[in-house]
Every structure is written in structure tokens, then in C-alpha cells.
Fold this sequence. Notes:
The chain has a single domain, classed as RNA-binding S4 domain (Structural Genomics Hypothetical 15.5 Kd Protein In mrcA-pckA Intergenic Region, Chain A). Helices cover 18% and strands 34% of the residues. It has helices at residues 14-20, 30-36, and strands at 3-7, 11-13, 40-41, 44-45, 52-54, 58-61, 65-71. The N and C termini lie far apart (28 Å).
Amino acid sequence: MPKKVQISSDHITLGQFLKLADIIDSGGMAKWFLSEHPVFINGEEDRRRGRKLRVGDNIELPGFGTFVIEKKQDRP
């Protein structure tokens, strides 16, 4: 079962996702992390920290888990 990561905007970058999903501690670590670890977005490998992720995208990080991007629901 993939872990859900909720966003309030239309998209986030892969670097922002790594921080939001608690994979890295700071945005500055994204470049290093992506050079050392494979990342699969919707089944395709991608290591660009600026890659835009949208609602419905599936992210697989071998050794860290599988994630899905969801839209954060507004509270009434």
C-alpha cells in the first residue's frame, strides 16, 4: 500500500516531495540524494529534482517505499 503525500497546490517538485515525505531533512540534500538513489515516477526513472509531480503520480524509492500524490482536502 503506497504512502499518501498530500499537496495543496497543483504540483510540487521532486526535491520538495523528498522533504515533504521525510526522506531528506532539507532541500539542499535533494541533489545528493538523487545522485545516490534511483527514483521511479510512474514506472520511469527520473533524477531531476525540478521534475514536477502532480496529483495521481506514483513515486517508488527502492529501500524507502512507494508513495502517491494526493490533493489536500480543504476543511469546511
